[in-house]
Amino acid sequence: MKHNDVVDMYLVGVHPAYQGKGVAAMIWESLHRNYLTYGIRKAVSNPQLENNVMALSIWKNYEGRQIIRRRCWKKMFS
User: How far apart are CA 65 and CA 37, in angstroms?
Assistant: First the structure.
């Protein structure tokens, strides 16, 4: 089997009742440690809104760049 250095991070999140209490930090720390152990170098996350500061702040301490951007547009009909 070939070695894969990319992880798909679909549906990683914290229930709203536990947000802001350090649970997300514990999850991310555990994931990060395991990714380093297994040689993961890239992560692909689920779509996040551009104005969702909490979701985007997770990535502020990582090197890299955003390579996929998805946007939805709403057309107003007259």
Answer: 22
